Amino acid sequence: MAFLRKLLLFLAFASYVQGSEVELDLSSASTDNFDVVTFEAGPASVTRFTPKLGVYVNRVTDSPDSVWSPLSKDFSMKSFEIHQRSGHNSIGHLALLEKSTPSPSDSKKEETLNQNTTESLPEKVVFSNLYFTKRDKGWYPLTKYHFDVLKDEMESLESTLDLHNFSDSLFSVSHLDDRVTRELLLARRLSRVTRVNHNGDLVWSSGGTELFKSAALSYNTMNKLVLVKMTLTTPNMTYNPLDEKSTRYYVDRTLYFYRNKSFAWETVNPTFYEEQIDRLRNEFAEFSRRFPKLTLDLLHLVNGSVSETPIYYNFKFEKKEYRGMNVMMLSPLGDALLTVVKSGDSLLWVSENKKSHCRDVRLYRLSGGSTIVDLCLASSSSDACQYKFFGFEGGEWRALSPENYKHLLNNDEISVVLDLAISDLDFCTKSIFKVDGVPVTNFTALDGYYFDKVKELEFELWNSTRFLKCKKVFHVNLNSFNFISLLIEDPLSNTSHLLYYQKMSLAPFDTNNELVWVPISQAVHSSLMYSALMKISFDFDLAEFITYVRSEHPFPFDLNSFPKTKLDAKYKNYTLSLFRHKDVPMVRIYPVFASHLANFREGSNVIWSSKLNYKLFFLEFNYAEQPSMAMLMFSDEADVVRVSYYSRVRGRWNKVTVDEAQDYFSAISTVQDHKYFTLDVGKLAPSNKFTYNVEHLDSPPTAFVEPSYGYKVGKLVDGSETIWSSASVPTENSTAYGKVDGTKQTRVTMSQSTHIYLNHYHKVPDGSWKGVSTEEYFRELDKYSEEYYQGEEIVDLSDVFKGEKRVYYEFVDSSYFGLDHYGVLKFTDKVENLSLYVNGEPLYKFPRVHYLKEVIFFPSNAPKVISLEVQLSLLLRLALD
């Protein structure tokens, strides 16, 4: 589909090389030439003008004033958007298509590419943007910063804040752990609060451009709002969007409001506000001393009249909405203990001793009208919660089982139980991977499922409450280590956290020495991960390995005698493979999955040491009585794959660069046991003895033949005639052979350890081969090249459309979304001396080293837009008059 994308780009770009030129009048745009769309962006409206295919906009006006005109035909309008709102100046956004300008570094490439063309052709289209504002019936340019400022102000929603019943859609609400100042309200972005009320009474109103920013709400012991600390903000009056250096900033001020005995709101000074705050704190402290134990009556919550009751002043109170139900959460403030929970005359729970208390209460008002309550009960701050569940329906309270409670709360989701001893993969996936070097088994619930309970046989680790869901379980069961972490999601607060457990014995408290799962902290879990890593870590000692090979094998460093199986159980931490690389015997070590290579050393000399979160893929070194080079591939803490090279220099291992490593490798590599063969230049064909490639350089096609590993060219012939033989050179020489055209010239390359020799040959008119000098060789080559490039291969797109076929191309004629047909011409081979014609007229002649790969032309019966893709991915775009 790549050519389709290219075609769309060319068709769009054709609007400024072949389309009709029109003017866009913003006050009366013609739908014949433009697509006009209007949509809403908050309180603002946006009108977008997009030129139709083939339309080039040479000017934008707002009758009679000019808005924009292109500097040249390198620019073409993509779209123009106008943002409008009553009381605001209109702003505009002009999106442009622009021809790219080649960089100075590409100038030589551009010159070579177009040496046979009459003009410089663009390589790609880029996009740019211009911004405007309308003032006094004229349009003025803007920077993007000023456009964004005006756009935000235009799309801001003006609203009123009711402190008695506020929504978190326009404000972020923070519930504070303070019995006096309980909530902090912050205006969200694009909200413009110009009035603040409380239960119908006016608290504050903007007299101009001043806006609400934040408010801290304080309550008395009767749960009535009595104090408000309000921060107001005003935009600077010096802001000028037509000045590039001007910036928009805001100036804040703070006001304090107090609800007097007449229940009217009045402005007070900071001193009076602080005195009232201190007084309220003293009242709450006195109440806590008089009533250290609290009673919670849920009657008002059940009846939906929480805002009218004074009962909840000693509680932190939050309201949320989740999946169509209202959720209310209460927890005692300060040191007070909640010991009684009731609803009118119905007693739900009462503390049975001095320590037991209720940490918090959640009440769920379901969409069907029923109510559910859960209580978190404990005896101390460190105890895990024990839950009790109640349901209210038909005017009566009843206790709920955990299963019934979960069913009522999660009736549209599928909960499953994960048993670590019997993992059912029907509802989850199981995978094993390494975390910090330690193998971890990962259980992940499938989409639409969640783990309601995690257990092992009859022992329960975790049970869900209050919408909490376990989606992933990470289990480490390695040797004597058995611990687990659970990823718990809380959709009500849109957060997640980890819980940790370890399977251990409670001895000496448990005389049966039974292993049980107990909760642990994150610090203990981290310590267990590190201990497990140390347990599975091992060192690979190069000296120990060499000693072992020498003691176990009579010919230890003969590659053919080395065992092809794994080493014995002493080396159970890794697997081993032996191979040759450029005739150098190599050993590669792969750590097994359940192990971790900590150090690569030779005796007491540590060559490489792993770090935290490193993972080694393999270690390799040359197989010799004293290895002299090594390489390690590993991933670091950022999961970036790295390779380290080491070489033995004067008996010491040093880290080296990749280039130095290659030099060391070349120094120890050997070439032996080569097989010689005869190469016939007149009968070249694919073979396992050599590689054969035809290259198109700045000369006629050239075939390069290089012997495969283990082979050498012993004789070069043309039928029965010998051109060259290796008998005249030392047998240890390696050879590579290259020929030009197969009929005129050839040359043989011979390399020794320090020198390279070239033998040149030329085929004389009588058909025999003779050796020539380098100067004569290239003189004959230039003469042949001139003859070769004198011809011309013509491809006419009109003939292609009519059905003309060639062996080196394939043609497809198609249509796209009802548009006129376009043609795709793909070249399956490189064609020399190619010239492209249209209807008998020459269009483009390709220079040397430029080979056509694909042509896309539209319409195919009478091309107007043509795309040429040539070798090296150089993309040309042509337009026809």
From TrEMBL:
InterPro entries for the chain: DUF529 (IPR007480)
Pfam families associated with the record: FAINT
Region (Disordered): 99-118
Source species, domain of life: Eukaryota
Leader sequence segment: 1-19
Keyword Signal included in the entry's annotation: yes
Record keywords, A-Z: Signal
Protein name, entry field: Uncharacterized protein
The organism of origin for this protein: Theileria parva (East coast fever infection agent)
